[in-house]
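Troubleshooting: if your tokenizer reports a length mismatch, compare your output against this known-good record of 297 residues.
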Amino acid sequence: MNAHHAIDLTTALWLGGIGACIGSFLNVVAYRLPIGMSVIWKPSHCPKCRHPIRARDNVPVFGWLWLRGRCRDCGEPISPRYAIVEFLMGLAFFALAYFELFSGGANLPDGPISPLVGAADNVWIPHGPLSGLYAYHALLLSLLVCVTLIDLDRQKVPSKLIGLGLATGVGLAAWFPFLHPAGPRFFEDASIGCSGLTGASIGWVVGMTSARLIALLRRQPLAKAGRNLTAGFIFLGAFLGWQGIFPMAAVLLIAGISILVKNSHKDLITTKSLAPIAMIHLAIWKSLDEIVRSLVS
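Known-good structure output:
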């Protein structure tokens, strides 16, 4: 392994560690926010004995392994979901670093946006737009994972989380236009902010349509799951813009209609599929964008 590869691996592991810490926080947010608890002021504690979790036991992934999945004080089992979420978030940040940050943004429409590759030239000597895009997309993945966890708990995504995610996705891109690398294309949007709002609107339509298809296949009411799925699509649209979500939406709707016509009982998409879909989309975004442009031109 040469020096450049060693720097890349070390940096990716460091970013993965940050992702694992964020995953730990998302576990807290997903549990507390729907029931109205503060996600900041009250320290993490065992839900049975109420004893605060010690700092050494709160290390992402390793803390759960050290405790062998049980509270140190009362022996109450700790769900492996906490460690799994931490590991997956760490893996997501690790992978995103390689295919977006270290590549100079080669995965992005019209990318790469940096002529340099590797962590040494794009992280330790920061490339502002590229670092901003990495953080922006990492935030999108974090929001989608949070929505997934809330859905798995059979809770409803709070309106304030939806509003915060929407405002952040649209607002940051309006202030920093490079965060929507596809830019105003095919139609001359009044602003980049319009791209985010239009994307969020498309996300709402796709989310509601997908939720109704699933409800129809299951012969069940929409209930909370429909709201949660729609929230995830709103986040996708706000952060990727309509240019980013449009090809994804078209494929999903066509597939959903096909499944419905065939009377299949398999779900087209569930809330827990959104984060992996977003990750795949980010990895192949440039290719998808080229396909859309070739169809439109």
